[in-house]
Batch of 3 targets.
Target 1
Amino acid sequence: MSDTSDGLPQDLPEGASKRLAELEHGLFTSDLSVNEFLLIKEVGFHPVGFVMGSSIYHTGIQTRKWGQSQELTKLTEAMYSARELAMTRMEEEALELGADGVVGVRLDVNYYEWGKDAAEFIAVGTAVKAENGVSHRNKLGKPFTSDLSGQDFWTLMQTGHIPQGLVMGTCVYHIAHRGLGATLGSAGQNVELPNFTQALYEARELAMTRMQDEATELGASGIVGVRLEEKSHQWGSHTIEFLSLGTAVVKTSDEVTLPRPTTIISLDN
Amino acid sequence: MTGPEPLGPDAGADSSDPKADMRSAADALAGPARNAGGARTTSDLSIDEELVLHSIGWEPVELVSGVSIHAVPVGVWNWGQGEIGYASAAYARSFAAAVDRLHQACTHAGGHGVVGVHVEWAVERHHIEVTLVGTAVRPVGSTGIGTDPVFVSDLSGRDFALLHTAGWAPLGLAAGASFVYAPRRSMGATMKQSGQNVELTNFTEAMYAAREAAMERMQAAALALGGTGVVEVKVTEGPMEFARHAVGFTAYGTVVRLVADEHRHVGARMVLPLDDAQVGFDAASLRGG
Amino acid sequence: MTVPAEPAGDLPEAAVRRFADGAFTSGLTVPDFAACLQMGLEPVGFTQGYCVMQWQWYGMPQMGGGFGYQWGGVRGYSETFNCPHGMVSQEHRAWGQNYEQSWLEDAWASGFSTAYERMLDEAGAAGAHGIVGVVDTSAPLADMGVVEFRVQGTAVRVVDGPAPADGRPWSTYLAGQRLAKLVEAGYAPVSIAATVASVGLWANCVTQYQTEGTAGMFRTGNPGEEIVQTAKAHTAARRIATERIRGQLGPDSLHGASLRTTHRAQGEGDATIEAVLRGNRVRRFKDFDPMPAPRPTVRLL
């Protein structure tokens, strides 16, 4: 992470400076739908600008040991660092705009044919700012990030909570190939494969634990919208990245009562 | 959450009688056509959109379109360095010319703006084309051209009405694009130790910069229209089908401005539907078109 | 169920038998069926009309005389694009032309209207007042050079309603809730409307080079110039389609239209551009009551 001195953070491209300057002068851009735009305004926030961060990272594979199921720690670090870099740059852009947070964050991975063993990690979202001028940044003084849609953001605010940050945990696990003897031994039977079970279980738990650690750092009271993604990227089927993502939230000091929802039966298409 | 509030029999009911309406309609068709008095309109808005438009006092006028296609000279896509200027220029010009033609068609039809524009663009090896189709609309009963400049937007009739109620007006479409070559240095050459996990700053810089450039051009177009913001920005990126080492980034959205004194809150209510969302029959889907 | 007296027109005999049976068939989904009943529309049966036409996509009328149908030769839109260079060579295209391929448009109109009329005949023979949920397609059949036009829909009767004036049922692409809202808004469905505009593009040298990206000393102008001939052909196709439909509307309006354009490249910069415009011809039968501004809601699920 680079420190922001006066002027643009060092690792943002030059083209960003002109764009962010225009946004600071009052133009806003957002990929929010009109519905989301109006709902964000309802809870007292205004979109400031579309922010993005990206990083092309080498995702080379270290030597694989055939007989052992294990975490490939180097790759885990790589996947984590790549996404962190992308997210950090996006946050820096938001910081530059004086935003309180970023909503609708999307994390994407692009693979280009001309970059074998490399992938581009992208984080994009819409930076928002509270209209009453009160800072809504998170415990670390940074703009909060969240992958909540405008509708979910509105609903969350109705419950008296505010996002703190998009938290993630990742674990790249290699599943051992089974020896020939073991394969023949269980041929024709439907049995649990304890090695595999153990391996996948451990990998998922590692990913989720790391995600929870991030939430604790932010002083969150909980995580919403948790999902677990599994990708093999370009490594073949025995190496899987487990990515756990969620939005850490904290209860705000204001007491907000949830309005009673009306039940309806929708009659149209 | 506590239990649901029971809906009374008249909750939200309007006083229409669908059977009587249908019989009146059939009666009208059985006789000679009475002159409606108004101009014949053509529109590609659905009935829902038309009703929402009417609820804010606007009506459809005519189906309009604008098309433009610009050539990209041969050799442009061969591997080079940095930005592919010709392609970016061709995209920008095609978009601007298509919007211009849409404006003209709208003005010719007496509309004050175009809503629900379907934006289609294609980048091929030798040309870039942009096609815009939408419905020109105007306030009910107005004749001639309004005092404000004609706007075009890809907002649906519904979104247009929502923004209008909140005090915002669309100004036009803003688009920006940038096409770049992937950086030249091969992967193998840069990575002496392929076990290292490290960021490839060259590549990052190139892609990141291109993305920012596309967004910045869109913003510049928005500012040129005098807008305060751009909503529903649609971003696409990816390598060209016909030249995988060339990557294109595009962004476009509707430029808006606050025209009321301040933003009017819409007062949204939370509801809990008791059915799963169903999509009814749509003839167009059977046609496969 | 009314029993038709005798087969109308050129319908197959099986169609007559099918409608004589008691139960109706319909292409309606359950929600649309419910909406129809709510409007007082009783389904009578599923109706269809077909027509198979000989078809060729390209060919100027003075070349290859037997291609397609050529009624009246080239009429309508035509625009010439001259080559800006001097005398060059035999292969250099000294002029190009955009022209309306009226014979194709007439053939399409003939195929479509024949199929449509047959569907109307079936419905009329069954005592229907109107046809909802119409689907029309045209697709190549078997080998090249043959296209089948299909128009299908669900025939309905208006309960306690009048038969249509000239015995021709009204029709609409809409069904179900959309039709109900259309009627409630004060529009009566008159008929479906569809037309095709076909513009042939015979490229001149500039267009050819721009389209093919051919380098050489004949590349004119600056890089990134508009391909004027193609842009004009596209614009013309759309304009022809919309103007033709407007001419067919009478005092009525076109609702829920869709305008689709296809571009068929034929090599060396030549192309055929086809615009298909479909919509519902509707007539205002009562003054419009604008509905109050709807209440925005956020779903919890």
Target 2
Amino acid sequence: MLRYILRRLLWAIPTLLLVTFVVYCALRIATNPLASYARSNPRLAKQPAKMAQYIEVNGLWDGPGGYVRGYLKWLTGFVTGDWQPSIKGSRPVWPNLKDALVNSVRLGLVASAVGILVGLTLGVFAALRPGKLRDTVVNTGALIGFSVQPFISAVLLQLLLSVQWSKWFGEPLLPTSGMYPPGHKGFDLFLMLKYMAMPVIVVSIQSVAAYSRYMRASLLDVLSSDYLRTARAKGISERRVLVTHALRNALVPIVTLAALDIGLVVGGLIISEGVFEYPGMGMFFLTAQSNGDFPELMPWMVVITSSVIVFNLLADLAYAWLDPRIRLD
Amino acid sequence: MTDTTASTASDASIGVLTESISPRRMALKRYMNNRAAVVSAVVLLVIVLFVALAPFTTRYGINESIYDAEEAPNQFLTPFGKAWFGTDGNGRDLYSRIIFGARVSLLIGLFTGLISVAIGTVVGAFAGLKGGRLDDLIMRMTDIALALPFLVVLVIARGVLENVSWATSVIGESTSVRFTVILLAVFGWMGVARLVRGQVKQLKEREFVEAARALGATTPRIMFRHLLPNAVGQIMVALTLAVVGAITAEATLSFFGWGPDAGSGMTSLGLLIRDSKKAVPPGYWWLVVFPGVFFVILSLCINFIGDGLRDAVDPKMQQEVK
């Protein structure tokens, strides 16, 4: 097991290097950092000496060889903690990135928890009576949930719970955007939850749909297995058959899916964060992208790529740990 | 068909007498028994007819306001007899614009879906049949691309395609429909390739493929005469997924302003939904509700059709339930 983990972690390094190199080249072409820099500093752009200096300091050389050299320069800077400041405003990148990461993880964990709990409950509820009314309702509901894209549910909810609500009842039920009211300082759990409610609903509509379908399929699979018949034949109560035998086994594939899902949360809530102007990783990406801010985008990509790789590994480990039939080697 | 025997054998094994009914007829019958899927197909057909007959079904031109400016105020009118879904900030009829928008979205979905399925089927079938190192490489690549958040991948790829000057002549400006279709197809084939690969990997172990090989059939012949015809059902399912994925991706890109541009006098569902964002604070509810609900109905129909197709071509899942 330990050898397997070590080998996977060792494999993660070349994967990460390869992905970051591809991303480096793609972002160099896509954002054109030199042009962004010239746009943000129109005065410096007129001085060729300053621009040449910027190219040298940041390794923004042209040509295939220049990209490789530039990547190596970026990589050494990144690893030694010598990060380039952002183009817009020339601020250090890490403090903002860290705040965005914390906010996103907070939103993502709450949304995942809601999505998983509600989704699994509905899935079990449906699978216990396959083909009956409740099964049809949950299944149809899940398909509807899949079709309600986050940007649609987000604007509809904003319209209903904020704008129309304040027309009907005087004040909005939930605020439309942000994480705190403008100018708010410090930590306030109640306010935070209030501001988080709509993004969480929007994200969990899709995850409830996904988890209820996974859970239903997984539980149905287990319910038709031979060992469950044996468990029943042993004469133990139906409740114990379900809880200790069926549910536990049905959850095994769900755990891996959840791990992969949570790995994506770190960078994957772009739509909801964008609509609700929630200051997380998604918002960070949107702002940096619109500014063509290469020095901000690279660390962001490294963070989300590593999280995907790490949670992929965790998913495999969880699978092997929960299902002893799986051998890792 | 040379290979119906295999399918009928599996049908017989689930206890259905299939002497005189072809597998295709059986799949059709199973599909017709799925009420939601049939209703969705009818609704989708109606939508497609409305869109195809746009000159007759729309009431105003795409950029035409319902009144002349001098005649009466025409901005932000709530739904009424002259404009069923109300009007937008330029006094244009929302009902007509939804039909015009759906035309662009459906075209993008269909073309992207077809290109993705064409590429994905060839790559997936090849990878599944050959196996080995190439298979590993392709699947590892798609794994990584599919593991990252799709919006990020699309946005970066869009930036790259936009800035490669020699490519512009082939794929068009970044605001054109052609560009969007190509951008979405560049990643759309990966999901299809995985589905087809899985199916081919299963099928190639079956006896009829072995028999064909024993008779001396060449690899392309096995692929096109034996493997792919048997995977047609799965490919159809993949097509519905690709189409709905492309329509959604177009809407998502447009929502953030990365999609095809409205400046050329056209619109799409994504652009209408993007406009609806601005209609939220003043409370113009019709501009938010109608495009959004229409989009949900459209993707719901395609999802239901895909679900029905999957159950129809792969009845094993259903059978286990009963």
Target 3
Amino acid sequence: MSENTIDAHPVQGVFTTETLSSVGFGATKRRVVQIVYVYAEQTENGEVSCRVLNEHFIATGKPRIVSRGDLFNKFVPAPDVYLNKYLPARQALERAVDSADQCRQDGQLFTAEFEYKNALRLDEDHIRASFGLGLTYLEHGDAANASMVFRKLATLKGVLAPEFKHLFNEFGIQLRKNRMYAEAVRHYSQAVKLCPDDENLWCNLARALYEKGRVRAAKRFLDKALAVRTDFAVARKFKAYIEEKSMEIVLDDALVPPGVESLVQGVPASMMSEAQTREEPAISVPKAEKA
Amino acid sequence: MSFQFLGAFLMERGLVTKDQIDEAAAYQAAANRRLGEHAVAAGLITPEQVEGLLEEQTVTDMSFGELAVARGYASKRGMDSLLFRQHVHQVHLGEALLVLGHLTPAAFSESLADYTAQEKARRSALSGILSELCGGEILETLVGALERAFQRFAGCPVKVLGELSVEDMSRMAHSFASEAPIQGLGRLRFTLHLSPEMFSLLTGASRPEESRRTVSDVPAIICRYLEQALAASKGVKTACADSAPQFPLQGGDRLRLRLACPGADLGLTAVWVPETSRAGVPAR
């Protein structure tokens, strides 16, 4: 195969190499040959991202970037492993997550948890399974385990890829509904750093902050949402709602002794519960969350 | 053993047999690994560091992961990833029964919902009992400290089942008394009463790090945990309504609780000794 032919076809497949290592000590010391498989995929800039295949033939761990030249010099293509091991394993894993998603949608939360964990045992970094497991915990109000999954998701790259965006938003909504406001704020804060041009993320961040009691910050981020899209009706309505509520609090403050409740510290608890019950019809924020 | 544990609850309902529960427990024991084992396998910390952290847990009321991060052995992010790995690979009793084919998902899901509701009621009842008592937060903290100590050093997830009867106590031949000073308010005297099964569990712990402790170390560990937890809290409420039962802020009253983990139980009795009682004037 000529160099030109190689360049014309982006690399994607399983490659293998043999490593020689020593095991044991003294008289029992011996050298063993280990076969290593990697899944290699060419990136847009021409480099190749390699991830080691685990014992289940699933690519795991952090990707290692190598040049095409290095890959072909040090590794040998293993198309049989790609076709007979890697692809079937990948398909089985995706089917298992599909089945878990279906169980979750049907309200079979225990079975869903079981299935998601089975999938994550094969691939710890599986984004859809991680979201699914976290959502399963949030759906039955298990904040401790949901928080652990949340921390894992924060370490995974690609959670904001288009195919996971609906899961990302659903997770944020569920965090907020479970009153895990700090996590919801961190969830959206991380997202707006990666996608500052997404007005829905700014709006959802504002909503999480508002429910956390940080009214000024919520308003500031609604302004950011409106800076991205000036005709964003949800953000406008939400901002108007906050301003109206703030005005009520200012008026109330004139009647209550100073120091009882402070607007600067956020919306008072009594006002918050009222705001939450009236918020849904008043500002239609769920539309922003689904966008 | 009490049906307040999941295995016994399922047996009570006729869904599984004792042999099946034992088989599932053995399956779990073979599959599940502690966080320290995961950390060593991942090359994050050394076996010596694990030993050191376990030793430190006898004086510091922190989880293994928190301690490893605090000592700079691992990053918080690294420890979070390990906790996730441990969680994902952890086999629970229900899963073991399913995998072994002793239960169907539908039957288990239904039972789990009932069991969860029962557990919620139990916790609420306990909280009710303790919150009615003046100074009940000290006792609640004591129970929490005991639960953590038994989990860490006996691998035994104890929980409060109810009041300790005289009959229960008569079975518990081994007693270990201790006393914890509480923020200059007084002292909490408590005694652990161990059933023969619990005594065997503590003395014959299967894990090396547990067997290093002698049974008599456990009350001292609980005392340290109690003191640290109270120091970390916002302070102990001492002002009580006159109508509230005067425990533990008046001497003489005694709390009696029965706790258990699957296969073994223990009793906890406690009495409050106010600081000024030596002079004959109870503190209020």
